[in-house]
Write a structure and sequence with these properties.
Blueprint (H helix, E strand, L loop, with lengths): L3 E6 L14 E2 L2 E2 H11 L5 E5 L3 H9 L19 H16 L5 E4 L9 H12 L5 E7 L8 E4 L2 E4 L20 E11 H5 L8 E5 L10 H13 L11
Length: 240
């Protein structure tokens, strides 16, 4: 059986919504939804929260997650990267427990409405491939082939395409592009030990249903409305 770890990054110093990871959403802390999703998966056999915050750690354990360490403050800053968080966690687990998972999910706490069936399908997809990782994406609403940089007072296209003045083509004639969303991302642990979060071969996992991710106060309001109404999805396609 594969060792599959869901790692939930949850620092205490969130800025957009203060204390976002434990903010109340329909009577439960936000992070509890991610924990419950991971615990409901038929493949995930360990769920760990990486946090620098004692209160988040306590709440996380109450909902069934493990918090075997507190993340060092140096890896819990505004500009701390995913690889710092994940590399620290895997090295700590290997050094202190001799535990090395086969696959790791970057299981973000910002998706309170997320189907466990899709989480499991994503895991299956990577297991049955030779790819380094799998990343969830959706079709982008805006095309980079219509975007510009301004350099030295002149316009330059952001993307290139083998057609003259491609930026004047109808959108339908340009390639379909995808936006990374963070709904479910799965990585082989050996990639993380190389201090990388994706590797060279990245599988797409296209999310076609709508979703909500919690970045701003209005997202909480919308998520609460949906949870109370029984509706499970909404579109908030933002970059991660």
């Amino acid at each position: 059986m594969y060792k599959i770890l869901a790692l939930i990054p949850a620092r205490g110093g969130s800025k957009g919504i203060p204390r976002k990871n434990i903010v109340n959403l329909c009577g439960k802390p936000l992070i509890s939804y991610a924990i419950e999703q991971a615990l409901s998966s038929k493949y995930i056999n360990r769920t760990i929260v990486s946090t620098d915050d004692e209160e988040i750690a306590k709440i996380s354990t109450e909902y069934g997650a493990e918090v075997p360490f507190l993340r060092p403050a140096e890896f819990a800053q505004d500009l701390s990267t995913d690889i710092e968080v994940f590399y620290h966690a895997l090295v700590w687990l290997m050094d202190n427990e001799g535990y090395v998972p086969d696959f790791v999910l970057n299981h973000r706490a910002i998706f309170p409405i997320r189907r466990v069936e899709l989480i499991d399908k994503a895991i299956e997809t990577l297991i049955n491939s030779d790819a380094d990782s799998l990343r969830s994406v959706c079709v982008a609403k805006e095309s980079p082939y219509k975007m510009w940089l301004i350099d030295d007072g002149h316009m330059k296209p952001v993307a290139s395409y083998p057609a003259q003045e491609f930026f004047n083509l109808p959108r339908q004639d340009l390639p379909v592009v995808y936006w990374q969303i963070g709904y479910v991302d799965v990585i082989r642990s050996n990639v993380i030990f190389q201090r990388r979060m994706s590797g060279d071969k990245i599988l797409p996992f296209v999310i076609e249903e709508e979703f909500v991710d919690i970045d701003y106060e209005e997202d909480l309001v919308e998520a609460e409305r949906l949870l109370k109404s029984g509706v499970k999805v909404i579109d908030k396609r933002r970059p991660t």
